């Protein structure tokens, strides 16, 4: 039977063997939610990069560029880290370069060893579930967290994915069991459960409220972003 596991922060990824695993990157607030929204609204591809400097070079080559640090847009770039920024008709068919504090860093950590790297969020939960059911590999949910620390929202997504795949995958490790139990406690009121979480407080302090509710909606889009070389594309 295939295994499903959870890495609670990219700084712990070295403790996991992922050479037979599909890695699902989860950065609910807000990088993977942006990626999924972008593809749903017609973006052609997204190049995730680890640094602002790399993103700037791609911008100079003609890419539309999105850069976020500490939940704020980096000056000089076209897009921020709000999924609503990815709903513009002007982005249809475009290639985007993206760097974020946690999400693109997580992709960079995973891509060298994983069989495949996907972007997951509540927005495309069922699409990810259906895809994984067709695959022969183990699964690791890599929670982007916040600067190496664990966060609740990414952990809850991991639990939601595990719950949906319980009949297909064995859940061997405590991080995965914990994620599943946490999600079962929270699933009837995700916003309420997360009300005092660190990232929600961070976003609210910046006046970012509508992104929170949006990113916690389930199954809005039948989108599966997958890394092909250095680009994310929609399957």
UniProtKB/TrEMBL annotation:
| Cofactor(s), by name | Mg(2+)
Q: Which top-level enzyme class is recorded in the Swiss-Prot or TrEMBL entry? A: hydrolase
An example Pfam family from this entry, by short name, is 2-ph_phosp
Q: Which catalysed reactions does the entry list for this protein?
A: (2R)-O-phospho-3-sulfolactate + H2O = (2R)-3-sulfolactate + phosphate
EC number(s) stated in the UniProt entry for this protein: 3.1.3.71
Which parts of the chain span the membrane according to its record? none
- List keywords of the entry alphabetically: Hydrolase, Magnesium
Q: Which InterPro entries match?
A: ComB-like (IPR005238), ComB-like_sf (IPR036702)
Q: Which GO terms describe its molecular function?
A: 2-phosphosulfolactate phosphatase activity; magnesium ion binding; sulfopyruvate decarboxylase activity
- Family designation: Belongs to the ComB family.
Query: What is the protein's given name?
Result: Probable 2-phosphosulfolactate phosphatase
Q: Which organism is it from?
A: Emticicia agri
């Amino acid at each position: 039977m295939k295994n499903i596991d959870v890495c609670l922060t990219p700084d712990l990824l070295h403790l996991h063997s992922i050479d037979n695993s599909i890695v699902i990157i989860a950065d609910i607030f807000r990088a993977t939610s942006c990626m999924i929204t972008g593809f749903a609204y017609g973006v052609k591809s997204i190049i995730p990069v680890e640094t602002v400097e790399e993103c700037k070079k791609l911008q100079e080559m003609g890419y539309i560029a999105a850069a976020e640090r500490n939940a704020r847009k980096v000056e000089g770039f076209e897009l921020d880290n709000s999924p609503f920024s990815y709903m513009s008709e002007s982005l249809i068919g475009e290639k985007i370069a993206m760097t974020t504090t946690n999400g693109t860093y997580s992709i960079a950590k995973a891509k060298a060893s994983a069989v495949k790297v996907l972007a997951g969020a509540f927005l495309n939960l069922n699409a990810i579930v259906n895809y994984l059911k067709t695959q022969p590999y183990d699964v690791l949910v890599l929670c982007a967290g916040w600067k190496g620390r664990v966060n609740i929202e990414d952990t809850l997504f991991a639990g939601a994915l595990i719950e949906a795949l319980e009949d297909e995958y064995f859940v061997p490790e405590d991080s995965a069991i914990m994620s599943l139990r946490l999600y079962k406690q929270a699933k009837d009121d995700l916003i309420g459960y997360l009300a005092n979480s660190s990232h929600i407080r961070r976003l609210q302090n910046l006046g970012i409220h509508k992104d929170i509710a949006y990113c916690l909606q389930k199954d809005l889009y039948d989108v599966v972003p997958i890394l092909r070389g250095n680009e994310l594309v929609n399957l």
